[in-house]
Amino acid sequence: MTDSQNPYANTQHMHTVHATFRREFALLPGLVREVAPGDDVRARVIAEHIRLLALSLHEHHSGEDAVLYPRLAIRASKESDPVIRFVDGQHATINALITDIEAHLNTWATSAGADDRDGLAAALQRFVPALYEHLDLEEKLILPLVERYVFASEYKKMVEDGAATIPREVGPVLAGMIMYEGGIEALPAEMRAILAEVAPRAYAAYAEKLYGTPTPPRSSDMVLGTPDISIRSA
Known about the structure:
By secondary structure, this protein is mainly α. It contains 9 helices and no strands. Residues 227-234 have low confidence and may be disordered.
């Protein structure tokens, strides 16, 4: 059966989005640690990046909570209920860690002080393993169920609704982030003609400003120790 004949969701897009989150969040502690005390310009650049990632992750989880988990609970309750309860707990843990990050971030973005910087880096360092654990569990236990019980039309609408919540001015950058891991196939078909050339250029410029290179490591090049690596000084 081809994809065009299969009524159920293809979750390859989700795997690519997860890879994007792994890469960008894992690089954050190193980015923060390398900011010199008092460099408020650099601090604001990184702070805006962190806020963008936090917003993207929030919208990603909101789509899962609104679309995927309720349908699995109805259509595959025996298989999904224990996993969904556990994943819901992980979402709560991630939300608490994000709240901690934001508290440190708001102070550091203003002060650019060494203590605030180190507190933020430590909060990010605590967050990364929790995020990796959560994404790994979803890929192993949730996404196979999605491909059996959630219709492609439902999944497509979830992706479209999530994209609609992202500020238009950062849309090409976020699309480029995802394409950096999965190429043009990572985008919904109806967005490919519009973003095929624009998005990679937007992300390359964004990455150059952020990392000092338009080609930061991909998720496949990274392990949990990567946050200690400084991209810009490498």
